[in-house]
């Protein structure tokens, strides 16, 4: 999932996200960011997030738990919820499972996330258990809150998603809700978190609290242990991950879904992801290089523009550099996942994984 | 002509410039900027400006005269040329008619501009005459220099534009060269400049040195006096102008071509040009306004996005705000010129001018 934090996948238009070379079927929005700005009243008045931003494909909204932890000065975590200061204006705000669900209900994404506490990667066992227990209680409250909101919505008609009349013969709209597995780097806690989250019962399950400062082998070990235990008939979502290598290695361990800002953020910083590894477009060796960013890529950018031109744009401070690198990077990530799915369907994933990984480390010519 | 100063029309992709709602047939590039960065050797190595940037439609390159005047600390203007300091790194540089033509020959745009001296808008008669005489001598030298370069190119084949073989049956590529009329705000000098520039003989004629600080009535008076005297079988190009009103009023006085950064620059600053006048998208009254920027516009942005969303993007510092406003503004300017051409063809220009101007001052609902 390309990440559209504040209602925009940075540097790319929705038309491009839908074009055949990207064909993103689902994007991510952030409850935390959208709640603070433009605020839920604005989005409600504009008919929900799909209508507000002009995107009619699927969306998933994060619950705000991770952003509260990573972006704010947290004032107080209580049983009720989290008090923190807005990263925009320092205003004192309070987020709880019920508030997060209320916001996500108005946003109206196809998939909502339970409100969790996201502990630091290095958290000790005792603290990790306490945090996990809190996340489990919040998961229960998230589910109850969203169920109630949806029951209310269904009585009133399909509010939130569409201002129009419900279509005859269409089922009432229901947002899916995913639970989040926490437990830090402690496998016993991770397993318990998974088991008890599945007991509550969600439409899909996410592994949260990884890629937050722990070592990479720790992350892959946890995924290797936990992913196969996750219900095989529900989506398995690894939150906030990762590099192309991370995606392949996590798929190999059983993960289905990802979101990450790497393709967009690194694109804005002059970095291209290619089939032969990462490339810093500022490098002088590209000054007169008329080849595309990735000679194996058929995205709109690689069909039209050279490394030399994109380097020039970047050095000249032209916005188009970010736009083109973002487009190519998203194309590369989404195409990689398409190839992964194709390889799995044809029983060739092991071969694909080996060849993809080998090529990724070969370096750009 | 959308302005692509450094090889990019800021904030918009070439695909969008070519899409039906914009359909830009020609864009402008700047000799000054491209000469300083990435430098002419890079563009030569990449096969000329069309190939370098990935644009196969027409281009016009400015000669650098205006940019030297407006962007640099000029050190010395001599008969030979202009010595100045680069606005990028302060390096001492020298630009002359011959150097400008050499650079423009490598850039390979369909239309090159003579190298002129651009005096300030308020220049006195004596100084304006001296400057005009210098511009005339430089016009002569520009023409001779480009003629020689093209003769050389034609002997060598179609260098600069395309690295491939010239196609059988195709005439040798020849860049058009436009002369520039100067003379400050002094009508007698403007007329003399026109007459003597036409004597030298160019493929088209531009009015330079307007929209540089003089009063708007002064500009329109000069255009009203000069444009009808310009050869009617050659393009009449008003450089660096202007607002939608300026375009209509200048067309009414006989002008054919324009270039201006207003639609792109003001778009990046949160300003939309609409059929009912300029709009500051930051305005709070748009917070929940689900209408498009311009209800009469059928561009891709107005078909998809609301004022409320674009306002949100702008306030959140999202790059997409600039991208969408730039796209809409260019669509509005290019569509206005299409409607102007249509009105002229059907003999309805006077009516169009009256109605367009009236609506422009009516304000957005």
Structure description:
2 copies of one chain form a homodimer. With 365 residues, chain A is an alpha/beta fold. Chain A is 46% helix and 14% strand. The first copy, chain A, is built from 15 helices and 12 strands. Chain A has helices at residues 14-18, 31-36, 40-45, 48-53, 65-71, 97-107, 125-156, 187-200, 216-226, 244-252, 262-268, 300-304, 307-315, 319-345, 349-360, and strands at residues 26-30, 58-62, 73-77, 82-85, 92-95, 111-113, 176-181, 204-207, 235-238, 257-258, 271-274, 277-280. In chain A, helix 10 runs parallel beside helix 14. The first copy, chain A, is globular. The A-B interface holds A 6-8, 10-15, 33, 37-38, 41-42, 45-47, 51-54, 287-288, 290, 300, 304-306, 308-309, 312-313, 315-316, 318-320, 322-324 and B 6-8, 10-15, 33, 37-38, 41-42, 45-47, 51-54, 287-288, 290, 300, 304-306, 308-309, 311-313, 315-316, 318-320, 322-324.
Topology:
The structure is a homodimer of 365-residue chains.
Chain A: H1 14-18, E1 26-30, H2 31-36, H3 40-45, H4 48-53, E2 58-62, H5 65-71, E3 73-77, E4 82-85, E5 92-95, H6 97-107, E6 111-113, H7 125-156, E7 176-181, H8 187-200, E8 204-207, H9 216-226, E9 235-238, H10 244-252, E10 257-258, H11 262-268, E11 271-274, E12 277-280, H12 300-304, H13 307-315, H14 319-345, H15 349-360
Parallel strand pairs in A: 1-2, 2-6, 6-7, 7-8, 8-9, 9-10
Antiparallel strand pairs in A: 3-4, 4-5, 11-12
Helix pairs in contact in A: 6-7, 7-8, 10-14, 10-15, 11-14, 13-14, 14-15
